[in-house]
Each structure stands twice: as structure tokens, then as C-alpha cells.
Amino acid sequence: MKAIVMTAAGTPDMLQLQDVPQPELPSAHHMRIKLAAAGINPLDTKLRTKPAYYPDKLPAILGCDGAGTVESIGTAVTRFSIGDTIYFCSGGIGDEPGSYAEYINVHEDYCALKPANLSLQESAALPLVLITAWEALVERVCLQAGQTILIHAAAGGVGHIAVQLAHHLGARIAVTISDDKKAGLVHGLGAEKIIHYRDQGFVQEILSWTAGKGVDIVLDTVGGEVFLQSLKATRIGGKIVTLLSTPLSMADIQLARLRNLSLCYELMLTPQVMQMHDERIRQRKILEQGAKLIEAGKLGVLVSATLPLKDAAQAHRLMEQGGVTGKIVLMIDPLPWVSIVQAPTTSYQHDF
């Protein structure tokens, strides 16, 4: 089969299209999936540069996100049948081959039926960002109706899903974005306060929006100075959930303590890295809940660029340029498809 192989850590040129053996099922509970598409995530570019989790297991096939058709099943598989169309977040961090390939093996418990109203290519864009946004907002900070939330980089992969989830949960949403096109996108997804971070200081804008109190919750998808400044934009007793490592000095810790802030971390890879089977099942259930929201018209995904599998290196270059709106997808099945699914803008009751 064809696969993109990461031959060594380094630049995107380390990603090479190669012929590799088609994978054999490693257990009776695994399925072989004929992949239609693989989602690209910033995680992939970071692991290409520095394979942090399994540096001794190169060469490797990257890609956590994928969608495709069940081609064969192990003798103990009960949840799926041959021909089912599924999506998943599994493999691709060095422990198991990832989704930059024509085929992949995935345990049945880690797969969900794809949303019925999305193509396989669109479905491949969702798993990591959906699980990340869900865990951050629903599980880490327990976002409630009526609360205020600031979402950084709101037009990005995690960001545009988080805006929709926050809107669905009934929160009042402020966002940071970089241009008017992204402003239009996130406004249509439910954002109330839009801050152009290149021209406006987000701390002062948030304080003005909240009558000097600060927001109840911040979702930080950027890190660094943005995270540190967010300490000042969060109300006393509020919560910050971040996807990144935090460069906290003693002065920053004292500020967080003075303001009684709760600092939460979100790394959706933890169950896979730490081999927590039950937690990976919990994450699969998030994909099932997300599919219901999509099928009900309450959640959508934006795919801003699609490239064939052979151009994985170019996809990584696009990601590393920054400012990507929505998601980038590698098409393994090169059929034409519509790349944008716009979420509706009306309000919904919290039903999950």
C-alpha cells in the first residue's frame, strides 16, 4: 500500500511517499480500514519536528485523524460490519501507524460511525479537534448557559469547533481572530464579541465587554504571552483551560493565586499515550455524541484546504505558516467533494 513515511525527525521533506506492507490485524478486536482521508493537525507537525512520545520508533506513519470504510474485521469484532463507514482518532504518534496511508488498523472500540450527512473526507477533519474542544469545555471547565467565555484563535481547527459547542451550551462568546474574513466566520457560528488581536488589546476589550469583571472562562489555544495575558482577562474565581504548556513565572503564579483562578490543561492524547483503554472508549463516545449534533444541524466543520496524500509535506508547510482557518485534509480517495460545511447560526438547547 501507499503511505507517507516520516523517515527521520526534521523538515517536511522528511515525509516521503513509499510502498509499505498492508497491515495485518493485530488482534481479534481490530479492523482494517480503507482510508478515504486523513485530517492534518498541528500535533503532526510537532511530532515530525520532534517525535516526543516514541523517538526510538522511526520511521513512522503520522496522522491521528482518519475516516474510511471497514474492509476486514477480527473474529471478535461486534460493533461494526464490513462496509461500515467510520471515523476515529487513533495511532499516528509513533506507537501505531497513523492515517497518512491507504489502510490502517484500528481497535473497534476506538471507532465511531461517521456523521451521516458528512462525506468521509469531511469526517476525517473532525476527531481530534472535536474531542479536544469537548473535553476542554464540557469536562474540564463545565461550561454552563449564560457564562462568558473567551476563545483564542477562534477560526482555527479547535477554535471553530469550540465556538459552536459554546454556542450550543448557551454561553456568551468572545473571540480573538486576525482578519475580517475570520470575523465573519466566527460571528456566523455564534460569537458575540469579536476582537481583532492585531489591532486591539484583548484584555482591555474583554474588561470593557464584561464591565470590568473579566470572563468566566478562557480557552487558550495559542499559549505563551497570550496565555499569560489571559490571566488578567479572567474574572476572579474564573477558569482558564489551555492546550499548551504554560510559561508561568513565580509572579504569574502569584497573580493566578491572588485572583483565585483555576488553571486546567487539556491534552486529548493522554489516554493513547498512557494506554488507558476505558478512557479511549470515553473519547469514542464523544465522537458519537458529536455525530448526533452534526446530523441534527447543530455542528459543522470547515475544511479550508485539501491535498492528495502525496502532498503531505506541502500540507505540513501550510500548517506551519500559521493562520489556517478550519482544517486541512489529505485525500487518500481522490474523489471530488465539497470542502465547506457551514454550521447554522440559531440557538439550541443543551441536550447532551
Tags for this entry?
oxidoreductase activity, single chain, Quinone Oxidoreductase, Chain A, domain 1, seven-stranded mixed sheet, 352 residues, 2 domains, six-stranded parallel sheet, globular, ADH-like_N, NADP, alpha/beta
Brief sketch in words of this structure:
The protein has helices spanning about 40-50, 120-125, 125-140, 155-170, 180-190, 200-210, 225-235, 250-260, 270-275, 275-295, 310-320; strands at about 1-5, 15-20, 30-40, 65-75, 85-90, 105, 110-115, 150, 170-175, 195, 215-220, 235-240, 260-265, 305-310, 325-330.
The count of β-strands is 15
CATH top-level class of the largest domain: Alpha Beta
What would CATH call the homologous superfamily of the largest domain? Medium-chain alcohol dehydrogenases, catalytic domain
Mean pLDDT: 94
Number of domains: 2
Give me the number of helical elements: 11
Rg estimate, integer Å = 20 Å
Q: Determine the strand fraction and express it as a percent band.
A: 15-25%
Shape: globular
Enter the CATH topology name of the largest domain.
Quinone Oxidoreductase, Chain A, domain 1
**What letter string, H or E per element, gives the SSE order?**
EEEHEEEEHHEHEHEHEHEHEHHEHE
Distance between the termini: 40 Å
InterPro entries: ADH-like_N, ER, GroES-like_sf, NAD(P)-bd_dom_sf, Zinc-ADH_QOR/CCCR
Protein name: Alcohol dehydrogenase zinc-binding domain protein
Organism: Candidatus Nitrotoga fabula
Domain Enoyl reductase (ER): 10-330
